[in-house]
Design goal:
By secondary structure, the protein is an alpha+beta fold. It is built from 2 helices and 4 strands. Strands 1-2-4-3 form a 4-stranded mixed β-sheet, covered by helices on one side. The protein is globular.
C-alpha cells in the first residue's frame, strides 16, 4: 500500500472513474488508500463493496475520511 492520495476535491463521478482505473491495475492482496469527504464515501464505498472489494474507512477530521479499498 502506498501513501494515501487526496481525492477530496474530485467530484463523485471523477472519483469513481479514477478508482476503477486504479483498482484494475491493482495486484491481488493490495489496496488503494485515499482521503475523501463524506459525500464521496457515501457514493463510492457501497458500490465497490458490492463488487467483492474490501472497503473500510476511518474519520480523520471533520468531513475528512481515510478510505481503503482492496482486492
Amino acid at each position: 500500500m502506498t501513501e494515501p492520495r487526496d481525492f477530496t476535491e474530485l467530484t463523485c463521478t471523477n472519483l469513481m472513474i479514477k478508482l476503477k482505473i486504479l483498482l484494475n491495475k491493482l495486484p491481488p492482496g493490495d489496496a488503494v488508500s485515499f482521503y475523501a469527504i463524506r459525500e464521496q464515501v457515501d457514493n463510492t464505498c457501497a458500490p465497490f463493496s458490492g463488487q467483492g472489494y474490501t472497503v473500510s474507512w476511518d474519520q480523520e477530521a471533520d468531513n475528512r475520511y481515510l478510505v481503503r479499498i482492496g482486492k
